[in-house]
Design goal:
- The strands form three sheets. A six-stranded parallel β-sheet has the order 6-11-10-9-8-7. Strands 3-5-1-12 form a four-stranded antiparallel β-sheet, covered by helices on one side. Strands 2-4 form a two-stranded antiparallel sheet.
- The protein is α/β, with parallel strands linked by helices.
């Protein structure tokens, strides 16, 4: 999902946005032959994510720059840890610094938040999954970060799976078409490998959906009591996903109801950037 070609395409756009006609500051102040060595340093505890993306920012700015990653994606680190070492022409290092940091801070922030959610449900059988509530153009980066934090990815795009939500069901009801009939008709049209998920917001919607033989049922904004009742009603006939009202404070209780998946939009839409810095060594050659 995150190929080198995709990384280079997105990072190149970011670099172009940041320095469309070059880095005036570095070109005016820094000698052309100056060399810099800088450490990517953690200011707080977290999970590392985005090493390849960080490296690409420097490589695409100046191919002579070398980036040595000290930790791997998915690895926890403590404050003060050196996560990567960057060595190369000083102008290139300084020009790429902000873009490299922007990506690795964002991705590490998502991975760290995901890791916190995963830890909360580790004693249950529930998986933590992301949603499509991602930054436009950065979905593959952000979903890689979720995986690095120990989470799972939901469908990547609208083209990957069928997911009938409340608005889909509302349109069907407006037309007088039952959910069961519509879902059965869809199954007849789709390849047998296509997964189907349906969102419900009431217990009485579960049986009509299950009657169509769908693979996953999402219980959206259910109370804990209704989640337990929904899991009992489904009784293993489909994967049960809980969604809505999920936070670090509530996720443990939600997972303990017996659901298979807890999807959390906050993993990507509310994660803060982790505090990482690029410190140029004063003793560099």
């Amino acid at each position: 999902m995150l190929s080198r070609a995709h990384i280079d395409r997105v990072v190149a756009l970011a670099l172009e946005e940041d320095a469309p006609w070059g880095d005036l500051t570095s070109e005016a102040l820094i000698p052309e032959n100056a060399v810099a060595r800088a450490d990517l340093v953690a200011r707080e505890r977290g999970v590392f994510s985005g090493g390849e993306v960080f490296e690409a920012a420097f490589r695409l700015t100046d191919p002579r720059t070398d980036v040595q990653l000290v930790v791997e994606d998915g690895e926890w680190f403590e404050p003060g840890a050196v996560l990567a070492v960057v060595t190369g022409p000083a102008r290139g290092v300084l020009q790429a610094e902000r873009i490299g940091l922007n990506f690795v801070q964002r991705m590490s922030g998502i991975a760290t938040l995901t890791g916190a959610y995963v830890a909360e449900v580790a004693h249950t059988g529930a998986r933590i999954a992301d949603t499509r509530k991602t930054t436009p153009g950065l979905r593959a980066f952000e979903r890689k970060a979720v995986r690095d934090g120990g989470g799972r990815n939901h469908r990547h795009s609208l083209s990957d799976a069928v997911m009938a939500k409340d608005n889909h069901l509302a349109v069907l009801a407006q037309k007088g078409v039952s959910a069961t009939a519509a879902l059965r008709a869809a199954k007849d049209l789709l390849p047998h490998t296509t997964h189907i998920e349906v969102e419900v917001d009431r217990l009485d919607q579960i049986e009509p959906v299950l009657a169509a033989g769908i693979g996953t049922i999402m219980l959206d904004n259910f109370s804990l009591e209704d989640l337990r009742a929904g899991v009992a009603q489904v009784a293993g006939r489909a994967t049960v996903e809980a969604s809505g009202g999920v936070s670090l404070e509530t996720v443990r209780a939600i997972a303990e109801t017996g659901v298979d998946v807890v999807s959390v939009g906050a993993l990507t839409h509310s994660a803060r950037a982790l505090d990482l810095g690029l410190d140029v060594r004063l003793d560099a050659p």
